[in-house]
Specification:
The chain is 29% helix and 19% strand. The protein has 6 helices and 9 strands.
């Protein structure tokens, strides 16, 4: 999978993709992440990529021309399954969205800044709009990092244990059950006996029951479809 990210502050994205699972995914050749500095593609002086909004009002808007130049340049080399714009008014990012996007080959992500991007870019280039929550960040870079991480870890071969992602929270609309590790008795706080039983069927049944219980307590809305 290849993901191209358009940003006006690309340095914000250096660390998230150079460590841990994302670094492993790239070193194994399973994921390519390319961050493009929008200022390198603007025809305006001093790297200008934003301007005042028509009609007045506070806040600058990312201009259409630099974005169109870069998007079209990237599209010359490959087709994109989705051109994604990170925006607070986009569709809420969920596990099922990550699952679906992890099956794609090429994605482009546009990181907004200021008051956002010119609406004409959204109308003529963007195919998908994503929000990671009902709040506003300074820019789309951190949100893009969240999306790439959620997608990248699902690519076969990225995680050492291929089944690990299948039991994450939100898979099958359930929160993950409690987890324990050694020692079995820590300060008198003991691990549930069923997990020490060595019986996979009993363990699976316990985990499913605990997942249902935790979901009902913390996110009952996830069970509404059942």
């Amino acid at each position: 999978m290849r993901i191209d990210i358009i940003s006006v502050v690309p340095d914000l994205l250096e660390s998230p993709f150079n460590h841990s699972i994302m670094k492993r995914a790239q070193s194994r050749g399973l994921l390519e992440v390319h961050v493009h500095n929008l200022r390198d593609y603007t025809p305006y002086k001093q790297g200008q990529v934003d301007d005042y909004q028509y009609g007045g009002g506070a806040g600058m808007v990312m201009m259409p021309e630099p974005l169109a130049i870069l998007i079209e340049k990237l599209k010359e080399d490959r087709g994109y399954d989705e051109i994604i714009y990170m925006t607070p008014d986009g569709g809420l990012f969920e596990q099922k969205t990550a699952n679906r996007l992890s099956l794609k080959n090429n994605l482009m992500i546009i990181c907004g800044h200021y008051k956002g991007i010119d609406e004409r870019i959204r109308q003529h280039f963007v195919t998908m709009e994503i929000s990671i929550g009902d709040y506003v960040l300074s820019g789309g870079e951190l949100a893009a990092a969240v999306v790439v991480d959620a997608i990248g870890r699902l690519i076969p071969g990225v995680l050492n244990d291929e089944t690990s992602a299948l039991f994450d929270s939100y898979q099958d609309n359930l929160l993950a059950p409690p987890v324990y590790t050694r020692p079995a008795d820590f300060r008198g706080w003991v691990v549930p006996e069923v997990l020490l039983s060595g019986d996979p069927k009993k363990v699976d049944a316990w985990r499913h029951e605990e997942a249902l219980k935790r979901t009902a307590e913390r996110r009952p809305n996830l069970l509404e479809g059942e």
